[in-house]
Design goal:
single chain; about 90 residues; mainly alpha; two-stranded antiparallel sheet; 3 helices; about 5% strand
Amino acid sequence: MNIIDNIPIGKKYKISREELMEKCNINDKRIFRKNLSELHEKYVIIYDDGYYLPANVEEYQELIDRLKTKEKEVKDRIKQVEKEMKKE
């Protein structure tokens, strides 16, 4: 069964990885991650202690905010590493 067909719409209906894998008859986590990665190219799939498709603008915005926070953390880390590297 197709993964995307089993991912609910809306945060309040999110589904755990284990439940999603079971519904899709996938036993291998590597295969599941590969399939999910391919779906990310076409769909906005959100993971927040469970998988779901955004149901409204607020859920899209929550994802954007989380990604911006991660982006800032990564940029800060890069600056820290570059600064440390220059000491060498």
